[in-house]
Please model this.
Amino acid sequence: MSKADYDLIISGGRVIDPALGFGKEADVFVKDGKIAQVSTETDKTEKYAAKMPPECVIDASGSLVVPGLIDMHVHLREPGREDKETIITGCQAAAAGGFTTVCCMPNTDPVIDNQETVKFVLSRAEEADANVFVIGAVTKMSKGEELAEIGDLVKAGAVAISDDGHFVQNPDIMRRALEYARMFGIPVISHAEDKYLSAGAIMNESFQSTRLGLKGSPSVAEVIAVVRDIKLAEFTGSRVHIAHVSTAGAVKAIRDAKAEGIHVTAEATPHHFTLTDEEIGKEFNTNLRVNPPLRTKRDVEEVIRGLVDGTIDCIASDHAPHAEEEKDVEFDQAPPGLIGLETTLGLVKTQLIDKGYLNWADAIRKMTYNPARILKLPGGTLEIGSTADITVIDPEKRWTVSETKFRSKSKNSPFIGWKLKGKVDCTILAGRVVYQNK
Ligand code: DOR
Model:
């Protein structure tokens, strides 16, 4: 083959592709934005590499080469709150965090509950540094009162529906949503939180909320909602995906339901497998205000156990940017949410892999193949012929989370100042380098 046969070679890294069960040192060849070859014949690679311009050969020795990471739960804030994030800046943050695909939640302004808004987001995303898939709303304006035009949303490109930020409190509406979703082959993503039990809550209901005098949301608010949605999924034969699992009770309910063959999947966020509500009283850092709230040590342990035993399928950031002035207020006045796209990988390595809970292949599966399978997205693999979305990770790189380095427009991370291990070296979108750590 002549040198023109390849556009990019990523050489010498340990290639991990959980979808193919592949995990060894190999070279990845890219041509026309697609994976052309994954080869273990390194001596042949050197010959090709010698003929190519140096910028087209990425030396990944000592690094991991994995399918581009997929974050199935982010808030990009456009349309409506471009001061917090835009599709462009959110995707720059995604690229810096190693994500080549993000799925954006519909709680924008206007809410993504109609075809025009889906199309608007998708058209804005054409120029972005990540693939963007849209999650449409379950109900009009996510008010929980009237179903959105689900068929129209799917036709425009929505890959799932969710009223994320709000629980679909009316079980009849949720039942109908699940039935429509089944017809269209998509899951309903549940923000599981009984509104009556959690009304007015600022944090988790626990010893800590009593100590701090802040109204708490009891864990049962999540558990009841999860159990209801599991029962509705069973009844309708539809697929429900539980977002940001935060309680031991929810993990158990999902584990039991899976054992019964009910079509339920779930995700956990880095903050829910890392932080407890004890952190809040230390400095009342408003970046610790999040929904669902940070829970107890036991909940964190059970979320991790759920990740380990496969009860929880995916790791998602729930990247929720908020403006500095909105967070620079009393704890109970701050909007819930924290940014996560740029810290997820480091927290996965530091909190889960280094502590012996997950190996790299399991962790990568939860950030590639599993979300792709649940949402029927392309990608999540380095199979020959697939789009060359690739993440190169330096697994041992130590770094400190710094506010000034975030690509995101917002800086509301409780992890600023944390020392993490594991950093993205390079993110490649359809064969194009969209991020390189310098
Ligand atoms: O903390 C949260 N922030 N939880 C949600 O469900 C919504 C999100 C947001 O949009 O800010």
